[in-house]
Amino acid sequence: MIDKEQYTDVLVIGAGIAGIEASLMFSKADRKVHLVEKTSYTGGTAIKFEEVFSNMECSTCMMAPRQQELLQDKNINLLTLAEVEEVKGSFGKFTVKIHKKARYVDMQNCIGCNACFEPCPVSLKNEFEEGLSEIKAIYVPFAGALPNVPMIDTDHCLRFKGKDKDCKACQEACMFEAIDFNQKDEQLELKVGAIVAATGFNIFDSRKTPQYGYAKVNDVYTALEFERLYASNGPTEGNIVLKNGNAPKSAAIIHCVGRDEKGYCSSVCCMYSLKFNHYLKSKIPEIKISEFYTDLCIPGKSHQKFYEKMKETEVDMIRASDIEISKQGKGIAVKYINGNGKKNSLPVDMAILAPAIEPRDDASKLAKILGISIDEYGFLEEENRDDSSVAISEPGVFVAGCAQGAKNIQDSVSQSCAAVGKVLSSSKYREKN
Amino acid sequence: MKKKIGVYICECGPNIAEKIDIDKVIDAVSSLDGVAVVDRYKLLCSVDGKKFLEEQIKKQGITHLVVAACSPKQHEQTFMEVCINAGINPYLFQLANIREQCAWITEDKDEATKKAIILVKAAIGRVRYHDSLEKKEIECNPSVLMIGGGIAGIESSLLLASPDRTVYLVEKTSSLGGLITSFEKTYPNMQSCNSIKQKIENIYKNENIKVFTDSEVEEVLGFFGNFEVKVKRETEENEIDEFNVGAIVLATGSTLFDPDKIPRYGYGKIDNVITALEFEKMNLSGGILLKNNKPPKSVAIIHCVGRNEKGYCSEICCMYSLKFVRYLKDKLPDVKVTNFYSDLCIPGKSDQKFYEETKGKNVDFVRATDIEITKQGDKINIKYKNENNKNSLPIDMVILSPAVEPTSDASKLAELTSISQGDGGFFSEEHEKLSPISTSTDGVYIVGCAQGPKNISETIVQAGAATGKILSSLIPGRKIEPEVKTSQISESSCGGCKICNSVCPYGAITFDEAKRISVINEVICRGCGSCTATCPTGAAINKHFTFDQIYQELIEIVK
To answer: Which of B78, B343, B456 faces A297 most closely, judged by CB atoms?
Structure first.
């Protein structure tokens, strides 16, 4: 029998590409969606990319229409700077507590003109840009962020830190009375019937594999840092430059960083490493590129074609093990053992590491709140690994995207559509009217 | 009523303002015929910008609107909504893209400004000839045609069927289940495949699922929400069933590349060289045996058979080859297994663990190229290259792991449903990243290996995804809105040559024998313009791309 008191609203956690897709679909089916996002913006990790493989479409152009649609959708209640704190109840009848941090900028009044940034006396590292640039204590993390409304970082703002209680430089610069220091954090209670967790991933900390020289040797970058170096809205406006300001003449791309440590192949690194080859060649046509890999993992109907196209650009594909990166003169030396077991060394100007995809650092905390388990790698655990990967042992809770395991955008989107399918086809939802 | 054209130029923050001299653009277009107002604004898509535009339309009495801003992909919809809010028809509007097509790509500011002037003039030239177009609403049928009774079709059917939604499940073979019924176990959990039997039972028990086995789809007419389908049953009378559905799911699965096409693998010529599927069936039937009925002492598994020929990695072969090692070791503990592979592709989260646990005593992994299989006495000889060294290995049994490819009826079904086939002959998705399940035909979805090689878990995910797409868009009792910018054929100018009938990719044009003219079904028409382009008499026109509209736009650009 259908319980008449079932809640028809849905909670989606994470406003990355998977969460956005799921929310838009629920809305299309006339469900009210509460979309909870930890950061101040939508788009997740994919919004950091300039282009996506294998058609090299501009990622922002691909996502912006969806993000716009999300912001304009009256069925979707987007809660930024928000986190789930407690979940009680069961499928069809969850009660969820959300902690929503104050942004201190009014979403309605702000027009996104950015006039408030400049007068702010505080500078801090921009985490969105992987620390490669600085922002003020009131900021939007990148040009084109949606919603295009700044936030105040209360950990650094002089006023909130008590260092200068009277500072109101940003407020004075705002022509639209959008800055409100009196905003308060909110505790919200939502009643939802189902939950989709689409909380995304972190990348493996390359410091844990010191042989790659990350954070010790100059011009060794992680994949995400390099994405931002190439991004037209990034810290160098898309100019790929070394620390000394010159363009690199040679670069090494190191696949599988952290694979042994994590115990799995992250599925996307080979493809995005080949994409990096394209990034480098398009900006610096004369650059010499070497890709150091173990096994080329490029499954899918269109990926090998992409690889063959990249090979035409004369990239050196080197099957290697025991890679060690060190400083050599003004540059970098990549020492390795090649496929024939021979020791080699290659001098390069820049090295880019392709680190494993790993669970978000708060994945186990979220799992506990949702009453679900995490797997041996720390990802949210699906009910049955041989079967559909979106259902979870707790009925009414579904998982989509990299929160469940490393995967590409297409597979993430498929999972989010599937999570919607599972929710909407459930008998608990059938008789809404 | 006199036309009053309003032209509004967006600065897009610094995006356009810094690259184009907007004041020059304003000067250049202000005195054009019909132009009543020209103005600039810092960000027209912002809340305030939209309010400004809406107020301007009302206050100035604007009848036709031109916005010079970004790509129509970005904000055409935004400004059309502004038109509706301001009380003018949203099709009396034209967006000139002076950001992506101008500011962002033209380095020199003077050049960019000149180009922007041309683009804005072209938009003004065109918008004068725009007509109001009205939205339509049509009833839809929530039922679904599921083509393919494999795991994807079964999963999706079970999720979709309900008292207000019938699923017609059409399977061309005599039984449901597809390839998985030939498997003993699935990886990585090495779970028994018996659960498929329960699911098939559930299909037959479900009164909202109508199963057609030994059947093929013969005809698909219509459009999203209203497809008319004919299914032919392979009976003596070749019965034809006709029914209506709102959506179609293609879950036709895959077949394996025929290793016969690569003679150096010896398939079909040398005894005990078998394909992966033959091995699955042999294993399921209980006995892994050579032709002489003795168990093999040594087995080679050859990965990537046909990969080069097909031009893609089939994703699942490495993993199922590892599963075969498990089968072999379970049943023949002393057997020696050698895997010949090129690159190990084991991308799932527990795939590597599965590999590590499969490695071990008497299980070898050899990275090899130039594999050649020949007969050597009673045995088989495998010649191969390993890091430029030539080697050979005598072996009892060889299992070939061939590439995954679309089924032979894929082309026919693609044609019936007006979708295309892309890389490798698999059905093409609407968008590689964001719409992997949808196709170029509204309401036609592709799932499982018909869309591209994938494992069982990913297949079931896509089956769920198609379910989600259908349940969120095809809701019983709700109406759907077809394309507004359709084509139409003028009765008086149509010569009845039927060229348009043959070029329409959506099957939207029929021939009226009585009147001897072609007629467009505007509900199916997507406004692609193929008929307009081919019509020799100019009878076919697209309502939003008329001769005058296109001519006036072009003339401003070329003059």
So the answer is: B343
